[in-house]
Amino acid sequence: MMKLIVVFVISSLLFATQFSNGEELESQAQAPAIHKNGGEGSLKPEECPKACEYRCSATSHRKPCLFFCNKCCNKCLCVPSGTYGHKEECPCYNNWTTKEGGPKCP
């Protein structure tokens, strides 16, 4: 039962981040300064909440998005730019998966 709940939450989170109503920023110049350097290890642990706040700003599943984003950021010290996609900017963030093989990070 717990596995089913975890799979449902992760699936919902992924669906919400992929098909949210939020719009991407049009240029890197508009992005918060926290995202301009990019790349793995580019953030300090204390910068994760702000980066994740922005990353999860367009989803309707904010609470699980923030939880998993902060967990991933604290491990990888990186959050992809924008509110969805761009995971190639952070290989650790992109490649961290659940036991079922799905992506762990939003």
Automatic annotation (TrEMBL):
Stated family: Belongs to the GASA family.
GO annotation (BP), single: gibberellic acid mediated signaling pathway
InterPro entries found in the cross-reference section: GASA
Pfam entry (one): GASA
Domain of life: Eukaryota
Name of the protein described by the UniProt record: Gibberellin regulated protein
Extent of the signal sequence: 1-22
Keywords: Gibberellin signaling pathway, Signal
Keyword Membrane among UniProt keywords: no
